[in-house]
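Hey, resending since the last one bounced:
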Amino acid sequence: MCGVTGVFAPGRDAARLAFFALYALQHRGQESAGIAAADGDTIRSHKAMGLLGAIFDEDVLAGLSGHIAVGHTRYSTTGSSIVVNAQPLLERSDLGDVAFAHNGNLTNTDELREQLASPTTLQASSDSEVLAKLLAEDRGPLIERIARLLERARGAYSVVLCTDDELYAFRDPWGVRPLVLGAFDEGGYIVASESCALGTVGARFVREIDPGETLRIGADGIESRGIALPMQSHALCMSEYFYFARPDSQFGGRSVYLARYAMGRALAQEHPVEADVVMAVPDSAVPAGIGYAAESELPYIEGLIKNRYIGRTFISPDQQMRSRGVQLKFNPLVENLRGQRVVVVDDSIVRGTTTPRIVALLRDAGAREIHLRISSPPIVHPCHLGVDMATYDELIAANMSVEEIRRHTGADSLGYLSLAALIAATQRKRDEMCLGCLTGAYPSVPPAHRERARAGSA
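The structure tokens again:
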């Protein structure tokens, strides 16, 4: 899932701008973070495991001087969660050093690795390094190398990179992962995974970068170059709408908050129930919960308080604490729950391990009835395009009926949003979205998974 940003801001401290943009994108990854900065002659970088605020301080940022910066906050899919896989990656090329940051997942990594002149020089275990080395080993202007890479690399990738004097950004031909362009009134540009990062640093939203488009940003302005696109040239991941993105971001002119609110209203229409109150599992389901409450004319309450400092901790709890896992993240508001018939809105059920604990937590707090409402359809296929989403054996909806899942969670009733209502809430066309995890139809699938995907979508 990862968050990436790139800054070109002459006369300004680009690393500092990248730092605050990454703060706005911290929800996209909490395992590691890094920033590389260029001043026209040299690229300097710093990266480490953990959260952004623990990695960077004034002294570190002071050492990252320059008007160009590339930043990354990591959520691992391909490659272990270790510091060698942290980004930005630094690669040597005949054009000089290149700092590279990638969000997404390739589906032909093995094929691309075999095309490298020196595959034994790979230090990381991520597909990101394969992309970076392919660019470094190629010849010619960088924008032409990227065009050739876009023809070869399959899967999901939104990339920002910089040389010592230019910033580049490109997006895969399907546009699976988001990437937006912003501008500073004082001059200069910023690229980021989501539009929410732009306002944080005082930039205005310009537009989304198109699928298959490359931007080169330098002292002479912006150059845009596209490639010939596949017939289905838009396939933004639907999970961005119901789970990943911050609610104050927008895609296709539609705010994520309003899309999730519409999902909640539709969920109340499709799965009404006699209840006393509505609550949501924080944070991504909150707009849908508010929408469900408005449509059903029931009061919206807070039922769970989230500990926002837990994140992905590298301090492992002992076994007894792990068995009470959800309570590390959530504490119930007993006064709001005791004796109530509660509608609980959540964004998804993936493996089915967390939801039963949440239901048990609410029952222990005194809820009389618990009615689960999910603001997405059942997730029945794994994702191959940048989401760490389990295997078929691990996906609960691929192996159980809705009624079996209800019994497994301990809820009194369970309802999922229909696919048609989910798409309608985004105000996009069905063929503009990647719905692979819901339907089995992917824009780009690893060969080993194609037959299973076809069977699942039949």
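Confidence is low (pLDDT under 50) at residues 312-316, 446-458.

Sorry for the duplicate.
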